[in-house]
Fold:
Amino acid sequence: MIEFHLDGRSGVAPYLQIIQQVRQALRLGTLSVGDQLPTVKDVVATLAINPNTVLKAYRELEYEGLAAARPGVGTFVTATLGDGSLAAHGPLRRDLERWLAKARRAGLDDDSIEALYRDTFRAAAKEEAL
Amino acid sequence: MTTVLQSRGLGKRYRQRWALTDCTLSVPAGHVVGLVGPNGAGKTTLLNLATGLLAPTTGTIEVLGGVPASSPAQLARVGFVAQDTPTYAGLSVADHLRLGAHMNPGWDAALARERIGRLDLDPAQRAGKLSGGQRAQLALTLAIAKRPRLLILDEPIASLDPLARREFLQSLMEFTAGGQVNVIMSSHLVADLERVGDYLIVLVDSRVRVAGEVEDLLATHHLLTGPRRDPATWPADWRVISASHTDRQTTLLVRTCSPIDDPAWVVEQIGLEDLVLAYMSHTPDPASNGAPALEVQR
Structure:
């Protein structure tokens, strides 16, 4: 089971934040096929948000084929996003940690690291597209 | 039943002063409705008309298809928490529950007990000794345990600290997740309403300025900035909520269903709080068909 949180200042609609958090959990393997998502009642009782917001997020996840509702029981994960790549996460994360340590030793602050990462990511994505 | 609250030309006058004027609303079922507006805008008057505590001076109002307070059945279907969540200071928590059981035919004693237990309220404690947050929760418990179809709350969280406010809204949302319940809640706190509400009514100066589903409101309002332009060139289907100009630039808040395809405008989405503030601070000029007068800033 995962727990949702909301960033009120992010400007991202609450139902989208819930969808993103489920997708993120699927990618990282925190959630896998068969797992139950928090019930609507639990989510609204924790986050103090409108039940329709949660229903909308879950409907969208069902539409994407990531979850399915079992009436009277709850909503369950039916697919995952990480699949084959999950095993590679560990080594890649360690590479990234080494790289981060190197960047800090070179004197980069958080903002510079993020900017450098994003810029490189974008440039690489553009090259791949060509 | 498809509407929770329907009013036509509804108005209320206290002696010389109109507290509510020409209020025509049709609120569909299945929503948590946020009623916002500055102090003295007529929010409490509208809510008191919906409960039947006040009778209209003009027009009609129907709640869940019936005239407010017209029958015991109608009274049983509507729960009401008045401004500042009043309780009887001299009565204990248990007395309040006995009172609720006595006066409400559909009283859900198990739900009331369960809530009191979960809130960790001492049944023997007098309501006057409770904290503001506990008192609000007690008032909410009484309103919820009568199992209403519509719950009306007048500024229930305004005087609570942030933690008590969050806990109150958690309880309220947990109740609405049970299904088949409608809520109308007035508040100044747009940020809180944004989380819990999915329908919004903005009341300013005794008039309804805008009402609709939050999602629709956010999708149809756009903040535009662009080079200064003659208002005569704006598309006819734009409803301009607010407009300001410098000698070079024009900034508009526009309501329209059609896409903005003129590349000269920079289009931004607007948050609920800014949208509400725009409606509150710009009074329409009756002569210009709902569009506010232009304000020139230099």
